[in-house]
Amino acid sequence: MCTKRLPFWHIGLTASLLASCTTQFPPLSAYEKPPSHTITENRTNSSIQRVVDPLLADHPNESGVYPLINGVDAFVARLALIRAASTSIDLQYYIYRGDETGQLLTWSLMQAAERGVRVRVLLDDMNTDGKDSALALLSEHPNVEVRLFNPFINRILRGWEFLGNFARANRRMHNKSLTVDGLSTIVGGRNIGDEYFSANQAIDFGDFDLLAIGPVVQEISTQFDLYWNSEPAIPVAALIPSSKSSWSDVKPQIHSVIQRYQHSEYFQELKRANILAELSDQNATIYWGMAYALYDPPSKANPQVHTEAQKSGSLPDRYMLPQLIKLFDNAKHQLVLISPYFVPGRAGVELLTQYREQGVAIDVITNSLAATDVVAVHGGYQKYRKELLLAGIGIREVRVDANVKPGSWKGSSKASLHAKTFYLDNKTLFVGSFNLDPRSAALNTELGIVVDSEELVHWLKTNFNHQLAKTTYRVELEGGKLKWIGEERVYRHEPQVSIWRRIGAALLALLPIEQQL
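^ thats the sequence. predicted structure below, dont judge the formating
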């Protein structure tokens, strides 16, 4: 299963094939759309504001965050915010599946729209294939508007358009946020789908979100408005013919589906979730500190703008990676990098080595070959593993369930790391969508929150570190060769995978595709 990567055959395209596809499509600037912005008035009756205002009064200028590690809690938090909405819901995601959690969330959004809440849905178009009818139906509700970021104009022959417009179509919006009433937001690594919320029996992505209140929410809203009104964000109504059905027509059918879900085992887990009681009783532990948003400009998706910006030989300062490097430069003692897709490249290895030489302890936590869902990414990462270890950088790789045997090319592990989290010097934490790889750095747009809170970092380390020995291998060098140290045994080759998967990763490492990973 690929959550962020483009389909593998896209990565391996040859120059000659690209050159043969010269189909022309209208520019995105040709599509007109009315601008809209975050609603800041008429929020006095918001139940969220009644809860938030007293808290913020006790913490002037600070933002409060509630960490969401458990998948069930992360989903319940989203449903709770949507149910509490009184004026607006702004939703921005790379993937939005039509599975159980996707349908439950959509039902909640439509219920909010029915009671007069304005709903804006901004989705990247890479993963919407086959969903045009549903998107058209959603967008026809008077209180709902759906826009697709960097869309495929040809809704049927999307693959051919990808080839003909590779420079543009290869750039995706990977941002993830859900903001309600402009007062509370959830930002992190999760998309909308069963595997992100512990509802999928085949795979469970270990992820991390922050539910936030305070000044940082306005920054996330500003970011959403910037993307919503940007050139690549096109209304569904301009791309997809009107639905033959109306919301009132299909509402009874959808309601019957939701009723069936209410008898599912997962729905019972939702009702038992600890966060439900904590949010209801207002007993949730909130961590306070100065916080701010980091995000790429939407113009990063424009290949012409990006090419012009790169003429200087480096990424523009307004891009996420340069901003993160400035953050990392502040580390004095420790830097911990948690990234499911970790491909540091030559420049990344040199930067981390420089930090290590300055006395900063560095630890990298990423997926093992068995746990990754994209073998090509592991192939790009493994080329740098020995050099990182020789520089004194610690590496841990996530294990999989011993009873699960991943296939040769795709991961099928019950547990797979998906969180993108960095913290330094026990006081500063980043949570967002950014992976430490070339695709996040130069191709996709990304979003995250930085929080300065010693209490939050301490909580994370306390809850995370004691799981490391059980859930990861410590990778070390011995006699110039790698070894993976687990709780019960030491491996001398990539653990828990077949020889074919190891060969596949090694072959992919030879291909000149690193900048696409």
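Confidence is low (pLDDT under 50) at residues 7-22, 407-412.
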